[in-house]
Write a structure and sequence with these properties.
Length: 363
């Protein structure tokens, strides 16, 4: 990652593919001279810890790695004075294939905040500090072997301005309407990226969440809209990653996902058959409660799959246990990689770089 300008990323050693329609983006808003004059929002992390952040321990990462600093005031200045800079940065972004030579994917996820899901372990608002989250993401994206990021528009727009997405796979998060803890959580409307947005911005894939509760009519709405989203992505030849669960509510009304072998098998079967074509559909699946069940579960579909991380707990022991579960499942023929967020961005020991490097090593 180039620690460079807030907007209008310049490329070194290659040029990106300009997405269809990007040439129509406003070009007069930011001139080359102005772009060169914009203050760097990412600086090498040589300064001391951010005084207003309670979570600064990850600055000293593996092998002395330090997270860059994000200048929020500069981001806001560019957003207010030059909002067209986001489209320009997207048009200039240097792109890459979805899969590199090794055929594996390592994606860092940060689409949780848009559901109001800000907690990590027992830290209820761990993801609430946006500058802190962006710094962690930039550090993670800079590590060797990290292929890209999954996030909502607000976060991806910031990362575009920060120049962090060159030569990375960019996945837009599509349905964020099922807010965590809401009575309508399973009526999961598509309130994030639309297929046309992903195409317009030159992003590489989309992701959607499919939770099915047989006792909640909202699941039918989500199923139907998911099928139409898959159709729209396939029509554009854009991959879409479907994250399916069989879910149910506890007597207290909390929504939980069933990770038994039977439930995960059923969710995979349902997701695989949605839409008029499965040609561009990938699955994003959890590891079952008993990891030994994964081989049998993954026989349910021939669609390529990645493993999701989820909230694995808040202790080093939990982290190690998660790595071991992922290691075994990654050997299965349909599993092509990992999409992990909170457990890598907010590891128990605070060392983002080390957590990311360990996950990459599993591939």
């Amino acid at each position: 990652m180039r620690a460079g300008r807030v907007a209008g990323t310049h490329h070194e050693g290659g040029s990106g593919t300009v997405p269809e329609g990007a040439a129509d983006a406003p070009r007069e808003g930011i001139t080359d001279a102005l772009r060169e004059g914009i203050t760097d929002a990412l600086r090498e992390g040589t300064a001391g810890p951010r005084p207003d952040s309670a979570a600064t321990d990850r600055r000293a990462g593996a092998a002395g790695t330090r997270a860059p600093r994000v200048d929020v005031a500069e981001l806001v200045r560019v957003r207010t004075r030059h909002p067209e800079a986001i489209a320009e940065a997207a048009a200039r972004r240097a792109r890459r294939p979805l899969l590199n030579e090794n055929g594996r994917l390592m994606i860092v996820a940060a689409d949780h905040p848009a559901r109001g899901a800000l907690g990590v372990g027992d830290r209820k608002l761990a993801m609430a500090n946006r500058a802190d989250l962006l710094e962690r993401l930039c550090l993670a994206l800079s590590r060797p072997g990290v292929d890209g990021v999954l996030a909502t528009a607000d976060i991806l727009d910031d990362l575009l301005l920060l120049g962090a997405l060159d030569h990375k796979v960019v996945m837009g998060s599509m349905n964020r309407g099922g807010l965590q803890g809401a009575s309508f959580e399973l009526d999961d409307r598509f309130t994030g990226h639309r297929p046309e947005d992903i195409e317009r911005l030159g992003f590489d894939a989309g992701k959607l969440l499919l939770r099915v509760d047989y006792a909640d009519p909202g699941s039918l709405t989500t199923l139907e809209s998911t099928a139409r989203a898959i159709d729209a992505m396939a029509a554009r030849r854009l991959p879409v990653f479907v994250e399916p669960f069989i879910s149910r509510r506890t007597p207290e009304g909390k929504l939980t996902n069933d990770l038994s072998a039977e439930a995960v098998t059923r969710s995979i079967a349902i997701a695989s058959g949605l839409g008029g074509s499965s040609a561009y559909t990938w699955l994003k699946v959890p590891v079952t409660e008993n990891p030994d069940d994964m081989a049998r579960v993954m026989e349910t579909s021939t669609l390529p799959a990645v493993l999701l991380g989820g909230d694995i707990g808040d202790s080093p022991e939990d982290q190690v246990a998660a790595y071991e579960k992922w290691r075994g499942a990654l050997r299965l023929p349909t599993v092509r990689g990992l999409v992990v967020g909170r457990s890598l961005l907010y590891p128990a020991d605070g060392d983002v770089a080390a957590a990311v490097d360990t996950a990459v090593g599993l591939l």
